[in-house]
Amino acid sequence: MARPTVPPVTLPVLGEDEPFPVRRVYLVGRNYVDHIREMKEGDERDPPFFFQKPTDSVMPPDSVVDYPPETSDFQFEVELVAVIGSEARNVTPEQAPDYVFGYAVGLDLTRRDRQREACKRGVAWEVGKSFDQSAPCGLIAPVSAVGHIVSGEIKIDVNGERRQTGDILHMIWKVPEIIANLSRSYVLKPGDLIYTGTPAGVGAVVPGDRLDASVAGLPPLTITIGEPRHQAA
Predict the structure, then answer these.
(1) In-domain check, residue 103
(2) Does a structural domain hold residue 3?
(3) What is the pLDDT of residues 72-106, one digit of tens each?
(4) Domain Fumarylacetoacetase-like C-terminal: where (predicted)?
(5) DSSP characters over 97-165
(6) What is the Cα–Cα distance from 50 to 184, expressed in whole angstroms?
């Protein structure tokens, strides 16, 4: 039997012809106070915690994302994504910006009912968070083009209606602190994406919905929710 050939996962880069290969996908949980209050979970002073999604869960801009199986509560979370451009080990917050290649708009798509079931059972969130096509990501804007994103509106519209809005400035843990914290537990390498948390306003979507997500200063991200494609054997 022939060995499978797995194509690399890549994302487009603003102003460049060469795509950016994705290595790992890290996400920060509960990083906006209003979202913590909205979800009624966690303490507003908790240190940051992280989880991961599969690399091949990353979907490029303008994708049709299949409505996933085993959920009746499929929700969006708009996030700023920091893209790592060089190897980082145990760096300080002051050093961290030097390791950022660029930024993008991302969506942490969530099977909320499955996540809540996992929380009640005291088990990992993987079933609710780490599934196929669950990490759409927009065009990467290099730091050389847009600078470092430290403030500005973050928002999402569903079918033209505003559903989430906030400001990057209101993150509990800022991007340099997130990178520094992660780099103490993992060796960060070029191609790592770090989704940095979502503000309040998360909600459910259904097939046919169009999601337009944006962060001030970055190329917007648009996806459409498609029909379920998972079928029993």
Answers:
(1) yes
(2) no
(3) 999 999 999 999 999 999 999 999 999 999 999 99
(4) 25-225
(5) GGGEEEEEEEE--EEHHHHHHHHHHT--SHHHHS-TT-EEB--BEEHHHH----S-EEEEEETTEEEEE
(6) 12
